[in-house]
Amino acid sequence: MVEKLDGERHSNFEVTDFSLLDGVGIGGFLRSSTFTVGGYEWELKIYPDGSCGFSTFVEKSNLRQLMALNGGSITVRCVLTVMKGHQTSEDVHTVLVPLPQSNLHRHFLDMLKGGQGADVTFTVGGQSFLAHRCVLAARSSVFKAELLAGEMNETLVESIKMDDMEPSIFEALLHFIYTDSLPDDRHEYNNRHTQMQHLLVAADRYGIERLMAMCEGQLCRNIKVQTVATTLALAEQHHCVHLKKACLAFLSSRDVRQAIKETDGFKHLVTSCSSVILEIFDKPPPHS
């Protein structure tokens, strides 16, 4: 450990006719002029009759002996040294450097859109999407098993065809894989809600839990009479506990339960999740 000297001063302060200061009372003091050492301003205070809170003083009897030899005056010699705090010899001054916002996600998105270094192509609904095996594998254990293991890795298949997903959903899936965020699409409510439903299914299929949770959260906040039945069926099929709870809370009203019977989603719910119908209506589902 080293200490760094920041300033030092040697000064003499002369107090004349000290005897005249007797009786000023405890806490009364004589103040010197202000002086500067180490970038700070200082002053010296002398308490003739002492001060509460300070126990160490020069005894007056000793001062009187000194004053008798010096014509009633005393001289106080002050040596003031200002030290900076302890530092290790390896330490440097801490400088606050403003950090720009992280742009890693934008770089990855640019790489996805530009196709630089892409080594796999997906064909979805007649549209082609370039991607990078290592990125997909790092973000999804399912993609890792499909792209980096077995024959597909050895033969470096140039194109993979997907028939069970809409191009817009696969594009949103890739967007999340590369940026860890949902695309900022401005769809009308029905289209946006449907997209979140399909994207949740895709996230579950490829084991992307964060994306699945984000879709679940969006769906929870946008439950309506026309969509609650299909959303509830989705929650049941993909084990979305929070989404199912939100749907059941929405269906707690008898009027709402009656209204959903008129929707197309209710028919889907009856055929795909009859156990949920029992949970809602506490009776067997109606026969077709």
Automatic annotation (TrEMBL):
One of the GO BP terms on file: protein ubiquitination
CDD domains given in the database record: MATH
Pathway(s) annotated for this protein in UniProt: Protein modification; protein ubiquitination
Domain of life of the source: Eukaryota
SUPFAM superfamilies per UniProt: POZ domain, TRAF domain-like
Family, as annotated: Belongs to the Tdpoz family.
PANTHER family: BTB DOMAIN-CONTAINING PROTEIN, BTB/POZ AND MATH DOMAIN-CONTAINING PROTEIN 1
Protein name in the entry: Speckle-type POZ protein-like protein
Organism: Aegilops tauschii
